[in-house]
Amino acid sequence: VLFYRAPRPVRFNELSSTPTQFVDEEFDDKEHAPVEMTEQGTMFANRLKKNKKHLAKWARKSDISCYRVYDADLPDYALAIDLYDEHIHVQEYAPPKQIDPEKAIERLQEAMQIIPEVLEVPVTQVALKVRKKQRGKEQYEAQAAKNQRIEVRENGLRFWVNLTDYLDTGLFLDHRDTRQLVRDLAKDKDFLNLFSYTGSASVYAAAGQAKSTTSVDMSNTYLSWAEDNMNLNGFVGGQHQYVRANCIEWLQQAIEDDKRYGLIFLDPPTFSNSSRMEGVFDIQRDHVALIKQAAALLTADGELIFSTNRRDFELDTDALIQMTINDISVTTIPRDFERNKKIHRCWRIKPAV
User: Fold this and answer.
1) According to the model, what pLDDT value does residue 76 have?
2) Are 205 and 183 in contact (CB under 8 A)?
3) Which residues, at least 6 apart from 78, have a Cβ–Cβ distance to it below 8 Å?
4) How many CB atoms lie within 10 A of CB 274?
5) Is residue 8 within 8 Å of residue 80, measured between CB atoms?
6) The whole model's pTM is what?
7) What is the DSSP track for 45-100?
């Protein structure tokens, strides 16, 4: 099964025809003896310290325990480093072409000694994922089977994350402000979360006093995770629905059933050829039809929030001329992602008056 959402730390201008996957990489002290700190390593350590100091006060004030502290700031250390409470999640970018591959490995080993030291986290609580080519029909989503979940906080809400078992952790940190927008808009509305993943947007909608929430996803694993996240925050009851379905097929049926929602969050995968779908889904090619279908479910005063993390994505506004569209990409980039303003694109879409 290949269900591919472009990995957030990988800077692709276009989708590669050969998918890659993140796998856990163990750095055994017996195999990797401590290396002497290089001049570049000192620069990396200093930058990491500076970033942590700059962001820590903001995170505490906002009741955020998970945020990005480093995002390939220095080309020699092409890493994305995220704090998840007392744990660290490290993902390796493809090194710049001018960096020698062997040197990149040495820098990674050096970084993995520096990171827990600077961030004051035990080595056993550091998860590293490095890019490797996927072979054949290997499972793309599942990476390990440690089943270790930890609880984190974001804007006063609580979420389960898993730093080892999957490509992503269960919480897209770059959408923190987008989720807050959902909370701000959700009061007394029926909320629909398409391609809901682990339901974080549904949690925010419920926190914003939505009348109801409906989370739709093809994965039983993610729907169960979404329900766990809702339960963790005390949002239980029949007004919160979890639907296992192909979102595209479900949308067609929902239109026939004349369903209506006051607020819809649509953050589809960049690409999917899941065996549970017919054909191949491509966000650039298929977004107009998808947006039109979702918008057909809006109430007269309803609103659709559409987002994608495809780097070269272009919204076809000419094909959506019957809608009012507002690009909010810049305003939805959180403080800890300011270095990477192309991490996602986001729009507010309403039926034209």
Assistant:
1) 87
2) yes
3) 72, 92, 93, 94, 95, 96, 99, 104
4) 18
5) yes
6) 0.86
7) HHHHHHHHHHHHHHHHHTT--EEEEEES-STTS-EEEEEETTEEEEEEPPPPTTS-
pLDDT digits (tens, 9 = 90+) for 110-158: 999 999 999 999 999 999 998 654 444 343 445 445 678 999 999 999 9
Q: Which residues pair with 216 in a beta bridge?
A: 194, 243
H-run or E-run covering 110: helix 101-119
Residues 6+ away with beta carbon under 8 Å from 237: none
Q: What is the pLDDT of residue 13?
A: 27
Lowest mean pLDDT among 29-43, 190-204, 227-241, 319-333: 29-43
Which residues make Cβ contacts (< 8 Å) with residue 162, sequence separation at least 6? 147, 148, 149, 150, 169, 170
Whole-angstrom distance, CA of residue 216 vs CA of residue 196: 6
The whole-angstrom separation of Cα 317 and Cα 325 is: 8
Q: How confident is the model at residue 34 (pLDDT cuts 50, 70, 90)?
A: low
| Rounded Cα–Cα distance for residues 17 and 49 (Å) | 38
Alpha-carbon distances of 13 from 149, 313, 352, rounded to whole Å? 32, 9, 32
